[in-house]
Write a structure and sequence with these properties.
homodimer, 227 residues, four-stranded antiparallel beta sheet, 5 helices, 29% strand, DNA-binding
Amino acid sequence: LDAQLWYACAGGMVQIPPINTKVFYFAQGHAEHAHDKVDFGNFPRIPPLLLCRVSGIKFLADSESDEVYAKIRLVPLRNDCDFDCDEDGFLGMEKTDQSQEKPASFAKTLTQSDANNGGGFSVPRYCAETIFPRLDYSAEPPVQTILAKDVHGEIWKFRHIYRGTPRRHLLTTGWSNFVNQKKLVAGDSIVFLRADNGDLCVGIRRAKRGIGGGPESPSGWNALGGN
Amino acid sequence: LDAQLWYACAGGMVQIPPINTKVFYFAQGHAEHAHDKVDFGNFPRIPPLLLCRVSGIKFLADSESDEVYAKIRLVPLRNDCDFDCDEDGFLGMEKTDQSQEKPASFAKTLTQSDANNGGGFSVPRYCAETIFPRLDYSAEPPVQTILAKDVHGEIWKFRHIYRGTPRRHLLTTGWSNFVNQKKLVAGDSIVFLRADNGDLCVGIRRAKRGIGGGPESPSGWNALGGN
DNA sequence: TTGTCGGCCGATCGCCGACAA
DNA sequence: TTGTCGGCGATCGGCCGACAA
């Protein structure tokens, strides 16, 4: 999964520590947020926090829900007594690789009208003008076909039209099918992103269904929630 | 799963040996008909047939396809040299418990018109008159609602009407939904059965898609095919 | 600028009798 | 007796501009 699309779907609040930086692992926080029981083996006592080195990161998306999540491999460090000393990036608060080049992306939370069965999608002007392919306004009406790739690489086709009084951008044909296939409801968000190679990508960010997330959470862990 | 409904779905060709009878287990035949590899462990050489005692039978139905199949537990017998001697029922060819009380059931292979999307189901007269609940012919038109339980215990509702010139029995409302949910196509069969307690049951028997069945075969074995 | 609504048109669903095999 | 067909009315999907927030 492309890291740029991953970050766009995850949202601006999400920061992933770069590889080889040091982070604290909060075992209890992890256990409390996990849906499945976390197996700490036979450790007699788990320290509240554990200094680790990030040794690997995988950007993934759930095959069912499209929700993005990350698997972060941590290697415990021995010298967790002198952790406030020196060295490089704690907690990834300094500039990380994700900030170095931010591609054009746009997220919108679906309104009732957007999610209504049989309805279309109101495209905010900013999104249509900066993310979508350039529309030929000289035609009457201005209309084009849009192709967007989701997190699995699947291509979705939409009819993009600029019409109505006052004029506005809309997705019509193809949108309803997308909503049904992805099981989107009002409150969920959709993300459009123009990749570096010019390809248009589409991702989704589902609304939080309640504290702790629902059983639909990918791989049994809350995706990047807090700790 | 009720044994009567199971036998009705399996069809008249199917005979299950009663418990505690002796049968031959054809290892090679089993292996050839299985979809998954059959693991015979480290046996250096498998005899062509193995005298066994039936120690357990489970009547089951695949949760996806509704197709019925049986799990038969076999215990190998030592004295497989003198198998043509005496004792009780070989191969269940004698009367078994399934023949002692045959409930009223009827099977019909779906025609193109039956399976057509949006169409109804032509109920053969015999089925309507002997299996279905008694219809009040004095009404105009004669119509009733039929409830039928499938192999999972789920209830399906159909509108049963007697109309047309010449008059015939039809299932209309509810039938299309049943066809779609069960993914029935022309050539598949439907089974109606009136249980001892008076309940109406419905089962399906899918058409053979080719020699050896398809990958949809339940639990990796062909259901009761030959050996 | 954009969320919601009612209008409306075409496609599909599904019930019907006619007719023939 | 029952399989197939065309008809046709009801429903639904989905595109549209009006209007107001």
